[in-house]
Each structure stands twice: as C-alpha cells, then as structure tokens.
Amino acid sequence: MKTKAKSMNILVTLDQNYIPPLKVMLFSLIHYHPQDIEVYLLHQAIPKEALAELEAFFACTSLKIHPIQVDDQIFVQFPTTDRYPYAMYYRLFAAKLLPQTIDKILYLDPDIVIKGNLDDLYQIDMDRYYFGAATHVDWGLSRINQLRLNYENGIYVNSGVLLMNLKELRQSQDELAIGQYIDKFNPLLFLPDQDVLSAMYPDKILEIDATIYNMTERIFLKNNLFQREKGLQWIDDKCKIIHYIGRNKPWKTDYFGDFDRYYHEAVGFMEGYRYLANLNNKQIRQNESL
Questions:
Q1: CATH for 7-289?
Q2: Torsion, Cα of 146, 147, 148, 153 (10° steps)
Q3: Which of 96, 200, 279, 284 has its CA 20 to 30 A from that of 251?
C-alpha cells in the first residue's frame, strides 16, 4: 500500500506575467497536500521584488519557493517563438539546472489547477524511465508526429505535466544530442520542447492517464464525457489535474467552456487561506500588544 509522500518537489518555469495563475495553481496544490512542498522556479529575468512578493505570499503555508535564475545563453541556438520562449527548454535540462540533491520532481504548467491528491502520481516507480507524461493526441496524429520527427513506437507527449526522474537523467541524458537533433529538425519543430521530448526519448517515457492527470476541455469533449452534469460528475470524482491549454484561459473574460468552475474553486481556496492567515496575523499582533 502506498503511503503519502513526506514532501513533494515541484518544478515551474515561467515569466512574471504568469505569476497570478501560478499562485492559484499552487494554492490548489496546497489544498490537497498537507505535507511540505518545495517549489523550484526556473526563470530568466523575474525581478527580485516580484520573487520576494511571491515568496511572502506563501509564507503562511507549508510551501516554499526556491527561485533559480537561468542564463539563457545556453539555449541561443534553439528555436523559439513569442508563445514558446527559451523557458520551455528548462524542462529538457532540468537535471542540469536543478540542485543535484533532488532525484525526482513533478513539473506543472502554471495554467493548471489541482483537484485531487497527487501522491499516487508522484510515487510512481520510474525505474529507468526519464519522464512520466500523458498524450493529448490519438493514434493517427501520433503516427503523423512520428513520421514528422523521425521516431517510432512512442507517444507524443504534452509537456504541461511531467514527472521527472532526475537521477536517471543525470546518469544517461546526452545533452549534446539534444542540440544536434534540434539543428537537424529545426524547420519541422512546431512545439519544440514537446517535439524533442517525444522524438528523442520514446522508450524513456512512461505514459500516464491524461483523463486523470492532464485533463483538458478537448479531451473531455472527445472522450464523450460531455454529458453536462453527468460528465462533470465524472470529472469531480476521477480527475486530479485540469489543464487549460491554448489561449482559452479561465481568468480571461472571453473564456468559453465548462471547466472555469474548477479554476474559480481554486481561487476560493487561495482567498480562504489568505483570509485565515490575515486573521491569524492580526490575532498575533493583538496578543503581542497586550
């Protein structure tokens, strides 16, 4: 029988613009995980003041932020776009960029909310696998991606949720080969980090269930789960991670879909924690003044 992890290592990579949804995501994680949570934030240029505010924001919780600034010069030869900056490559090189004392970490995109305990996911035996990941594409599109990127017999991953075996990556990952692959297939790369992960490590990726650990509106519709209350009840009962992929974000006024309720629920968790923390701090100040 699996026991709850004593602590959990979480990896996030983002710029300053994504700090607001990151706060919501992390408070939704805290809600289901009473244990210590160590969050490693890889970034290129988030101001020190913003990082200090972020750390202070979680001071009332068991979650600790560890900012790590990355020199993007090591990625200058890699392709980027406005939507996919150098930060997406931090996942590929996490074993190199993170402290050597960490053997396992769970990467989460900031446009995610947690709606269940993730201990079962976090404690999966990774053995010789590098990554645990889900796919959002069916067999046909997977085959097209295999032909496009010259690999066989592996899933095309969504990199928004990645369980990383850092110990095995440090021992076996060929970082030079990543650069060589990108140089060769650069014109064919659409989502570079996902393309590289899928193509270079097809036999090193352990598939996890997207409907539980990387659920999206598209998967919900495609899997015929969209039966209004019955379908949403399935999400309530089974799903543990909601991922708001693409441009359809629940914090935007033009959001459409049925999953915004889970985001607003997570906002409620955050506001509740903050309210109680403020009450506690007020009570402490009153006691000290007596």
A1: 3.90.550.10
A2: 10
A3: 279
